[in-house]
C-alpha cells in the first residue's frame, strides 16, 4: 500500500515557477516508479513526467520538456516536480502516482494516486 499526498500548487504568473511535492509513504514505496499527471478543464488526464525507482532515469511529455524537472528523494519519501517557465496551458490539477513500471506510468495508468493539487497560471 502506497499513500501519496501532493502539495505546492498555487497561482503563478506566466513565466514563473512552482515546485510540487508528493509525500509518499508505505513499506515498499521506494520500489515504485513515480509520475506526475495533470488534468486541465475540458481536457483528458495526461502524463507529465515520471522517474524510475531503479536508476532515477526520467521521462517527460513533449509539452514540458526543458521546462519541468522530476526528481525524488528516497530518504525523505518525496518526489518533486520543478516547473519553470510556466504557461497558461499548464493550468491543471496535478496528481502524483505510483506504479512499478515507468512505462505503464507513461500511459497515464498507475496503481496509486494522490488527491491532486491545483496549479493555475495566469496570463
TL;DR?
The chain has 123 residues and is mainly β. It has one helix at residues 102-106, and strands at 3-7, 10-13, 18-25, 33-39, 46-51, 58-60, 68-73, 78-83, 92-99, 112-113, 117-122. A hairpin with a 6-residue loop joins strand 5 (46-51) and strand 6 (58-60).
Secondary-structure topology with pairs:
Layout: E1 3-7, E2 10-13, E3 18-25, E4 33-39, E5 46-51, E6 58-60, E7 68-73, E8 78-83, E9 92-99, H1 102-106, E10 112-113, E11 117-122
Parallel strand pairs: 2-11
Antiparallel strand pairs: 1-3, 3-8, 4-5, 4-9, 5-6, 7-8, 9-10, 9-11
Main β-sheet description: 7 strands, mixed
N-to-C span: 40 Å
Which band does the percent of strand residues land in?
over 45%
Give the fraction of residues assigned to helices: under 10%
What is the molecular shape?
A: globular
Element pattern in H and E? EEEEEEEEEHEE
Cα radius of gyration in angstroms? 13 Å
Say how many strands there are: 11
Average pLDDT works out at 94
Structural class: mainly beta
Structural features, described:
4% of the residues lie in helices and 50% in strands. The model has no long low-confidence stretch (mean pLDDT 94). With 123 residues, it is mainly beta. Strands 2, 4, 5, 6, 9, 10 and 11 form a seven-stranded mixed β-sheet that branches. The protein has one helix spanning 102-106; strands at 3-7, 10-13, 18-25, 33-39, 46-51, 58-60, 68-73, 78-83, 92-99, 112-113, 117-122.
Amino acid at each position: 500500500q502506497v499513500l501519496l499526498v501532493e502539495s505546492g500548487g498555487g497561482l503563478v504568473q506566466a513565466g514563473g515557477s512552482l515546485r510540487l511535492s508528493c509525500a509518499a509513504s508505505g513499506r515498499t514505496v521506494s520500489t515504485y516508479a513515480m509520475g506526475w499527471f495533470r488534468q486541465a478543464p475540458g481536457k483528458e488526464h495526461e502524463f507529465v513526467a515520471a522517474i524510475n525507482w531503479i536508476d532515477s532515469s526520467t521521462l517527460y511529455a513533449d509539452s514540458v520538456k526543458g521546462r519541468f524537472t522530476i526528481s525524488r528523494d528516497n530518504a525523505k519519501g518525496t518526489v518533486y516536480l520543478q516547473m519553470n517557465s510556466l504557461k497558461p496551458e499548464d493550468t491543471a490539477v496535478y496528481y502524483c502516482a505510483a506504479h512499478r513500471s515507468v512505462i505503464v506510468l507513461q500511459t497515464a495508468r498507475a496503481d496509486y494516486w494522490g488527491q491532486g493539487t491545483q496549479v493555475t497560471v495566469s496570463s
